[in-house]
Write a structure and sequence with these properties.
With 241 residues, the protein is mostly beta strands. A four-stranded antiparallel beta sheet has the order 1-2-3-4, with no helix packed on it. Strands 5-6-7-8 form a four-stranded antiparallel beta sheet, with no helix packed on it. A four-stranded antiparallel beta sheet has the order 9-10-11-12, with no helix packed on it. Helix content is 0%, strand content 46%.
Length: 241
Amino acid sequence: MARVSGDPYLAFLTQTGFDDEIVYLALGFDHEYFRNPNPIGRDVITGMAFDETSGNIYCCNETVHATQVFAFDPATNLETSMQDLVADTTLTSPHGIAIKPNLYLRSSESRLEMRARDGTLLGTRDYPVRDIRGITATPWSWTFVDRIANEIVVIGPFGNEIATAPAPGAAGGVDDIAHDMLSVMSEEPQVWLEPGVIGDPGTIHHPDTPWSPAPWLGRHRLYVANVADQTIYAGYLTAEP
């Protein structure tokens, strides 16, 4: 999720060899608005997280820049900051990153690493039976995807698992996740007809219509990327199995 010049988008990275592009989509609808090349010298980005305070997208990389976290301005595509964590990194191949106002997490294989926004290492948490891919900040929690179990996993502030749900798409392909923290969810229909267009009252395309089945802990929208399907799925968690 990201704002570019004030407008919200869903951003994802395409990769062909080392030629990367960041694609910006409509929220809740399959429509591409524009795409930009990755910042110069920052090929093979593996995780992105939007910082509402600065308006920048923070990134991690599991190969040539595995010890670094850097940020770029999506409006200009220019790099704005970089932290080199080589002195105390606990991850060999960070795949995902998620940001909250004072903290960020990186994910790699079965470990999550928490740091203060200045890069200070605060702690780690291991999940021995999981293969953690992407991670996203969610209200009062964090949420990641596990490729081995093909699950979406919600964890509390201290890392305890709160809830799980099957990830959409082909088994073994789930790769990343994003939570919509930019939209006013009370104004969101369960399903958009197209960007900014709502349907008739009483349909699932109108925001006054209750979502069915009821969302778990209130309206929210998650985007889950599955590389095996080459598809991004939009949906929400429910209390029902």
